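This section describes the prediction task in plain terms. A model, or a person checking by hand, is given the sequence of a single protein chain and must write out its three-dimensional structure as a string of tokens. No templates, partner chains or ligands are provided. The sample shown here is typical of the held-out split.
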Amino acid sequence: MKIKLLILFLFSFYISSNAQATPQDTLQHVNNRVMQADSSAQEEEGDEESTEEVEDKKDDKPAKFRYRFSTDGTVTSGNVSRALIQFATSLDWNLHKTFKLSSSPSYIYGNQNKVSAERETFADLRASFLYEKRFYYLAFTSFERSNLRKINNRFVGAGGFGLKLVQKKTVYLSVTNVLLYEKTDFVINEKFPDRNLWRNSTRLFGEYTFDKGKMSLSHTLYVQPSITEKNFRWNGNLILRYQVSKNVSFRSMMENSYESVVVPGRKNNDFRWTFGVMLEGKK
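The expected answer:
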């Protein structure tokens, strides 16, 4: 009963905050930058085992394929007409007990006052080696295109290692560190030159389950300084998920992102709080 009241309270707060207290910068297209699945901030996700996967190890035939589809967004009308819809997918293929492939493609559509805002596309492919061990290795590549951030294309390639700090039935905590190469082609090249740089990316990930696995809380924090020029990023999120059936869950996500170097007319820091639905399964 307490869980249901908590979800109802969060949903009511979300509706009222959008209807009565819309942040001023969401009324201006130039400042309303949605935090896309940034290739330099999302590339490491999915290369580890969650608390759910730890339980699967007890089965005679653990799942070899996993999927998660989620969607969320907002729609407003009146003085400001705004539509924002996000689609995200998470796929895992356990090809061998020492090798796994993962991918997290996503697409964001945004329209404000009949003007195209977001058309954000992200695709990646990640490989994890010795992923069942406490110390494992990972490599990945990704592609990104952003209408909102005026990015024609961004390519990323990286490799590094991960360490599982805690791996229990209800608690999972890990840290990864990779060396990352990033090449970005911006639309306004004459005013904002393209970037070719190297970064060091450190991520801290944690997941905790409650109420016999029906509710989970996860957090991710990235720290990504450039090692070849003055360019710094950090990104963090907090996700609350409540399972209503075997394959369907409600979720709420808070995200914050900071970039020291942004296209003129954009802010360095962005915050977003969304609600949505998740469909998941395994074979």
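For orientation: The longest helix spans residues 2-20.
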